[in-house]
Each structure stands twice: as structure tokens, then as C-alpha cells.
Design goal:
By secondary structure, the protein is an alpha+beta fold. It is 19% helix and 33% strand.
Length: 575
């Protein structure tokens, strides 16, 4: 049995913790046509008292996955977990952390309600010290899920019994690491980094619980490059630290600074990257230089784990195979990725866009705004300090006119929470208010594709089939332009499966490479274009338009991969 035993969040490390991944008692109930989410803890308490566990499950893998040991890909409304953990009462606070669980999660500790959380993608924790006893403690977790509920953002999880087109196997219940953390009563609660590459300094905003002396030391490659200390601090505090050495975060080289914060008996280890982001005319600037975004779509699905990679090696490999093809980043698509994945993006200098799983949401429902704001806000705040995240995108392809209100609200909210990064209101098709005008264009006719984007250079006009069909939508009025989905050229390596993709008329590897070159060069050689995102890095189940197979194996000859690398690595006109 594979155990995910690594520390799950390198951005907020405390030494005193206990990993709860591995085998849990487990039970589940399949889809019920009359299923409704519980309004309180009564459903969890009822199931807990029944004490019926039919299986064992390997946490944090979802029950639909092979790695969980369950591998039931059906609709599941209820998934419930129990683990006996031997603990001792302590003066420290004890927090139960869950990296992510889909969708409504209720926690009981020794039969007592300890917390509830709604949302399938963001991390959450509950302070459970008052429920702990000396000796064996029973932790019970109930997850309720219903992808067919129109107020549940479900991303790429299939609404039909089987996967189809670009929707895939569902995830129910826990799918990221579960762990306990011991925290002194006087402790560091949160902190946010605001690096300034120009002045070689960083502003830190911290929230402190209790009153004590505070110290922050910054290191680069094990030697100290900055320090701040002050006696008798409490509450929210801001401070600036000048760095004696400047090492810029940039594509291909993370150059991370290590940070140690001490407050009373609490010690937290973290890190940051020194980089500035700005938009200037048509350009995306990183540290004052125009950087063309050579991105690839990454959906974060795995053959054996679905939403969850088998190991950190799989996370690193996804970044490495992308970089090997000349990409410098990715759109992390319709999913909030694990903090550990983002850490490797930070470390390897890999630019990514943070996105949420908006598909499945009914935008016309008045409750949708509040639900989505809360869940998206949790994701932004959790991932704010990752230097690899160079922009936010709360929505993907909102087609309905009813979505305007929620799209505008989420854009405004995102800019209020984080003014340091650009925000694309919705990737592709319908914009309401956005910092970057992005387009999805899967046209496989290279001449037609190039002609339309050449017209953008000469006449500053963008061709979009969506605007032709819906002339009342927002039109391009200037600023940076990003083709955030294109290509998607279908290439089926496994003829035995019923496949789906774009560009089905490509018959040979050379035809594939020629089309890739023509489409990509049309964007690279356009001096008004700030970036592209090719669909996609690897196949996902039946969607066979990846540059690698779902298992991350090669689909083409080495010569074709070398050609793709050379195409992507060209200097862009805007650079």
C-alpha cells in the first residue's frame, strides 16, 4: 500500500505534526435520487453511532481510485472514515488539517462535533484540543457529495455515469493529506509575502495570536540575508526587510529564499521568491522584462489516483516533461492543486495560473455568488505566497448570460484580496471585466488561424466565433492578449478506447508536427501576443489530445518531441 507520508505544505512548516494518511475504516453509500446535503451534524452522528464500516481505504486517495483500495467509480453520495489515534493531552493546541475533501465534510472527535466545511478543493482545519483524551481517540469524517447539485462546483467530474468527452472520473471524499499539528497557544496564525524585486526587499504581513517577542530571519543558500525582530508583538503586524543579496525568481530557476519565524515558543519555516509582476500595454512583465508565456494545459488527473498523485515524484515529473518540451509554465485547469505541487513549481521556476473548478455551478441561482466567493477566497488565501502563481482565473468558459453578475463579483473580489497579480475573469469566450483578454481557439486550419491573428497585428481586431454568435458580449478594447487554449490536436495512441479530441484529420506524426508548428508560430511571431497555452500536456482518460499518454509515456518519436521543443523555445516577437 502506497502511503503519502511527506509534509503536505512546505510554505507553513512546523516540526510537531502527525501524518494520518494510510489505512482508515471506511463505508460509503452510492447515489440516492432524493439525496440532500445535511443541515447540521445529525447525519454524521447517526452514521457514527451505527458503526458500520464495510471496507478499509488508503487515505488520501478517493474511493473511485485504484490507489484507495476501493476503486468504485460510481456516483457516491456519502463516504465516511474512522481512525483510532493514540494521543496525549497537551498544553499545545491540536489542529486537524484536511488538504481537501469533496464536498461537505463533518468532523467528529470521540463522538463530538468538531467542525464542518463546505467545498471540494480548498484546505481547511479545526482546532480539536478540547475533544482529545489520553490514549485512543476516535476520529470520524463524513463527506457528502452530489455532483448533480447545481450549487456544487464540480470541475471536470463527469455528470454522467461514465466519463465522456472532456469530463472524467469523479472524486468523492478525502483526496489530500490528513494530519494533526501541535501549535503553541501563542503562535503565528497567518502571514502574507509582498516581495519587491526592484528594491530587493520584502514586506511581510503577519497575524499573531497572543503576545511575545517576534523574530524573522531570511536565508539564501544557508547564509543570512535579512532579519527583523521586535519585542512584545501581538495581533496583526506589518514589517519590511531589506535583503543584502538579490536573487530573482524567474522561469527555469526558482532561487527561493528560506524564512524562519519565531514567536514565543512557535517556530514556522517557510520560503518566498523575489519577483515582480506587471502588465504594460500588450506585454506581461516579470521583473521588468517581457516574458512570453509558453504554457500548457495541466488538468491534474492521474490514472491510479484520479485527483491525487501517487507520489511527489509524479508531481515533479509532470513539471519536468513540460519543461523538456520548451514550456515555461501551465494553466492548472479546473482544479486547485496540492500545495506540494505548487512548491515544486516554485522551486523549479515554473509559472502557473491558479484556477477554480467552476463547471457544474448554476450561475442564475442567487446563492451561487456567496458559495463561490467563500470557496474561491479560501483558495486564494491558501496559495497567495506561491511565487509560481503569476495570475488568477476564477472561471473557465462561462457561456451563460446569467453568469455576468457572479463573474464580475469574483473579479472584483479577487483584485481586492490580491492586487499584486493580474486576474482573468473567465478563461475563454465571455469576458465581463478582465486584466487580460484571453481567447480559446481550436481552429486547426493553420492559414485561417494565422490570418485572423495577423489581423490583430494590423487592425487591432480579434476574430472570435463567440463574438460573432453573441455580439452583445464584451469586445476587445485593448491590452494584453493571451490564447489560453488552442491546438488540442487529437492523436490516439491506444486505438482500443473510444477517444475524443480536436483535429481528428491529422494522420501522421509529421502532419501533427506541422500543424503544431503552424499554430504555435502564428502566436509566437505575433508581436501583440503575450502568451499561449497548448491543450494539453497529457491525455486524460478518453480525451486523447495530450503530448504524452495518460500514463505520461511518449506518444511520438524523439524527433517529433525535439521539434516541439525547438518551436516552443523560439524567442517570441513580443520579447
Amino acid at each position: 500500500m502506497k502511503i503519502r507520508d511527506e509534509y503536505p505544505n512546505p510554505q507553513f512548516v512546523r516540526e510537531n505534526w502527525l501524518n494520518l494518511n494510510g489505512q482508515w475504516d471506511f463505508g460509503y453509500r452510492k447515489a440516492d435520487g432524493d439525496f440532500e446535503f445535511s443541515k447540521d451534524e445529525s447525519k454524521a452522528l447517526s452514521i457514527f453511532r451505527q458503526g458500520i464500516y464495510t471496507d478499509k481505504i488508503n487515505v488520501p486517495f478517493c474511493p473511485q481510485s485504484e490507489l484507495s483500495g476501493i476503486a468504485d467509480t460510481d456516483f457516491i453520495n456519502l463516504a465516511y472514515y474512522r481512525k483510532i489515534v493514540n494521543l496525549q493531552k497537551t498544553d499545545s493546541l491540536i489542529y486537524l488539517h484536511i488538504g481537501a475533501a469533496d464536498y461537505l465534510t463533518t468532523i467528529l472527535v470521540n463522538g463530538k462535533p468538531a467542525g464542518r466545511h463546505k467545498g471540494g478543493y480548498s484546505s481547511f482545519e479545526f482546532e480539536i484540543s478540547e475533544y482529545i483524551i489520553d490514549g485512543d481517540n476516535e476520529i470520524f469524517i463524513l463527506c457528502e457529495d452530489n455532483e448533480k447539485d447545481l450549487l456544487v462546483p464540480s470541475g471536470k467530474q463527469s455528470m454522467e455515469p461514465k466519463s465522456h468527452a472532456c469530463e472524467y472520473t469523479r472524486t468523492t471524499g478525502i483526496w489530500q493529506t490528513v494530519y494533526l499539528e501541535y501549535v503553541p497557544k501563542t503562535h503565528i496564525e497567518t502571514f502574507y509575502f509582498y516581495p519587491d524585486a526592484k528594491s530587493s526587499s520584502i514586506k511581510i504581513s503577519a497575524a499573531l495570536v497572543g503576545n511575545s517577542d517576534f523574530e524573522c530571519e531570511i536565508y539564501y543558500e544557508n547564509h543570512k540575508v535579512g532579519k527583523f525582530s521586535k519585542a512584545d508583538l501581538s495581533g496583526e503586524t506589518d514589517f519590511n526587510i531589506s535583503l543584502t543579496e538579490k536573487h530573482l525568481w524567474q522561469p527555469g530557476n526558482g532561487r527561493l529564499y528560506d524564512v524562519v519565524m519565531r514567536f514565543g515558543e512557535d517556530t514556522v519555516r517557510t520560503y518566498f521568491g523575489l519577483r515582480d509582476i506587471a502588465l504594460d500595454g500588450y506585454k506581461f512583465l516579470l521583473n521588468g522584462k517581457s516574458v512570453f508565456q509558453r504554457l500548457v494545459l495541466d488538468q491534474g488527473f492521474y490514472p491510479k489516483g484520479i485527483y491525487t498523485s501517487e507520489s511527489t515524484d509524479d508531481m515533479i515529473n509532470d513539471i519536468e516533461i513540460s519543461i523538456a518540451l520548451g514550456f515555461n509554465g501551465a494553466r492548472l485547469h479546473q482544479k486547485v492543486f496540492e500545495p506540494l505541487f505548487l512548491y515544486y513549481c516554485d522551486k523549479m521556476g515554473y509559472m502557473v495560473w491558479g484556477e477554480y473548478a467552476n463547471w457544474g455551478l448554476d450561475y442564475s441561482n442567487e446563492s451561487a455568488v456567496d458559495i463561490y466567493l467563500e470557496q474561491w477566497g479560501e483558495a486564494i488565501k491558501r496559495d497567495f505566497n506561491h511565487p509560481s502563481i503569476i495570475g488568477w482565473c476564477p472561471f473557465n468558459e462561462t457561456w451563460e448570460y446569467e453568469s455576468d453578475r457572479i463573474v464580475l463579483a469574483l473579479y472584483e473580489y479577487t483584485k481586492k484580496v490580491d492586487s499584486t497579480r493580474p486576474c482573468i475573469d473567465t478563461s475563454g469566450n465571455f469576458h465581463v471585466k478582465t486584466d487580460i483578454y484571453d481567447i480559446h481557439d481550436y481552429n486547426g486550419d493553420v492559414d485561417f488561424f494565422k490570418k485572423n491573428f495577423d489581423r490583430f497585428m494590423t487592425d487591432n481586431e480579434l476574430y472570435e466565433h463567440v463574438l460573432i454568435d453573441h455580439p452583445g458580449r464584451q469586445k476587445y478594447t485593448g491590452g494584453p492578449v493571451f490564447v489560453s487554449e488552442y491546438g488540442g490536436i487529437r492523436w490516439v495512441s491506444d486505438k482500443s478506447i473510444e477517444s475524443w479530441g480536436y483535429g481528428e484529420d491529422v494522420k501522421t506524426e509529421d502532419e501533427f508536427a506541422d500543424r503544431y508548428e503552424g499554430l504555435t508560430n502564428a502566436l509566437l511571431q505575433n508581436y501583440k501576443m503575450m502568451g499561449f497555452c497548448y491543450t494539453q500536456l497529457y491525455d486524460v482518460e478518453q480525451e486523447q489530445n495530450g503530448l504524452y499518454t495518460y500514463e505520461r509515456k511518449k506518444k511520438f518519436s524523439d524527433d517529433i518531441y525535439e521539434k516541439i521543443r525547438k518551436i516552443n523555445s523560439q524567442k517570441a516577437a513580443i520579447e
